């Protein structure tokens, strides 16, 4: 064996390099072996955190796992205001410096809390690309706090396990009275996309939307699945399937996070909409009976309705929630069940921009006819300004649940300008008009006589009527005009003219107090025994109306000739008498007025 002096200069250099590398390797191995002991590794890790880590970061215990010396095991890890982990481990990847290779081959953690409050500061921090840093994750019982000051914005990560690199990862989380399960797959993932099937269920979609910083209306309990693709700057939900309340739901939702305000594009539909499920949006206690899918928001709406004496709910639009999202939503319901108004279909198309909601289309279809409306709610003004216009097109009275007393179809128009953040305030300050007309109406003969208090003929009809085939009498015209000024709706007038009776309604509806003050005059055109001219008033409130006889002074105030003369000019001077000399209404003028009420207003 040659001595060092016998080696050439090149050989000596190589020897020294090898010796240095061997010594370094021994020292590194000795250091790594020492790091398997917590009493040595813990202070080393804490010194490193003090030098290069966040302020105040420390661990209660740390050591390298033997023989896997690339794995650092931690317990009692604490980064003030950022994270706490009871136990965890970090496995380094020695090839992490290469492009496309994450620095950590595995991260595991149990029983901890991570604050994501800073994730709202910038778009990049809100959506870190985890796959640049980690391959495999194994997490359990971790609280993700989006806002430490609001415990309701904490997500409990029950479990998360799998490779985020190839997409084969599963996740189970709870929060905001909701549960989320995600099954990622390599097939659905690729490039910068993590994809898989997600299931979300909970009590109220508004809770989960608010939790993630978006906005949604209150809903009944929901249970939905979808194909989820998590992309840089976007969440794409496709092939949605499931139920909201007792209604099915399908379609797609795209959330674009790269815009200044997250933008939602939703195209959703229901094969069958249970109309009860819409009640909670307007704080109405629909669908709270036995056999219905009911959530906390619906129960609260029912309790509030039962405590109140008013019909119009006192709900307030929280425009601050709309600051969280812009978007465009298109919704179609092919069929509708449990509708008080016998709806057969619904189509809604609306946009949200800032605090302005524009319903470009709200169409409600019946077996015969449609109601179409267009609306704008401007929450940038205080109080909020709402504008609504719409029409009734050949709507069957049967579709309005009036088939027991009337048949045929009606047309109409309506418009309203309202001011207020609360629904009651908006109605109480409304200006606008409502008009309904028809020449294609038949009225239940008994109902017409009873409304006119033509007792004699009503008794005859009652005795002879076949309940399976009731008698209807044609109406020459039905015309209703209501002018609304500062929350007072004034009938101007409402007229029903049949072969047997002429009925006129005048008076007011105070939408602010919901008080009714409507006077009904009716005259029979056919002579009959026991006739009592119908002079009654409709009082009380919208929630609890009452019927009372008119006094003599009120009768004079609603003289039929006077009311109709305001519409069609002077009528015959003779008064309508009880012997059956009631006159026909001037239908042409009444219908013209009803049809032109919107332009006149």
Task: Give your account of this protein's structure.
Pfam families: AsmA. It comes from Hyphomonas oceanitis SCH89. Residues 239-493 form the AsmA domain. This is AsmA family protein. InterPro entries: AsmA, AsmA-related. The model is unreliable at 119-127, 446-466, 527-534 and 552-583 (pLDDT under 50). The protein contains 13 helices and 26 strands. It has a domain at 398-600. The radius of gyration is 37 Å and the shape is elongated. It has a 26-stranded mixed β-sheet, sandwiched between helices. With 601 residues, the protein is an alpha+beta fold. Helix 8 (445-451) runs antiparallel to helix 9. 20% of the residues lie in helices and 43% in strands. Strand 4 (104-115), helix 3 and strand 5 form a beta-alpha-beta unit.
List the SSEs and their pairings.
Elements (H helix, E strand, L loop, with lengths): L8 H26 L3 H15 L8 E4 L6 E9 L3 E10 L11 E12 L7 H4 L7 E12 L8 E10 L5 E7 L2 E7 L9 E9 L2 H7 L10 E10 L2 E11 L2 E10 L6 E12 L21 H12 L11 H4 L3 E12 L7 E9 L2 E10 L4 E9 L6 E12 L9 E14 L3 H6 L2 E14 H7 L3 H10 L7 E14 L2 E11 L2 E10 L4 E10 L9 E7 L4 E5 L2 H6 L2 H9 L18 H9 L1 H4 L1
Parallel strand pairs: 4-5, 13-14
Antiparallel strand pairs: 1-2, 2-3, 3-4, 5-6, 6-7, 7-8, 8-9, 9-10, 10-11, 11-12, 12-13, 14-15, 15-16, 16-17, 17-18, 18-19, 19-20, 20-21, 21-22, 22-23, 23-24, 24-25, 25-26
Quick summary:
20% of the residues lie in helices and 43% in strands. With 601 residues, the chain is α+β, with helices and mostly antiparallel strands.
**Beta-strand residue percentage:** 35-45%
Q: What gap, in angstroms, lies between the N and C termini?
A: 115 Å
Tally of extended strands?
Answer: 26
The major beta sheet can be summarized as: 26 strands, mixed
Low-confidence stretches: 119-127, 446-466, 527-534, 552-583
| Count of DSSP H/I helices | 13
What would you report as the Rg, rounded to the nearest angstrom?
A: 37 Å
Q: Quick check: average pLDDT?
A: 78
Q: What structural class results from the helix and strand content?
A: alpha+beta
The amount of helix comes to 10-25%
Global shape: elongated
GO cellular component, one term: plasma membrane
InterPro entries: AsmA, AsmA-related
Pfam families: AsmA
Organism: Hyphomonas oceanitis SCH89
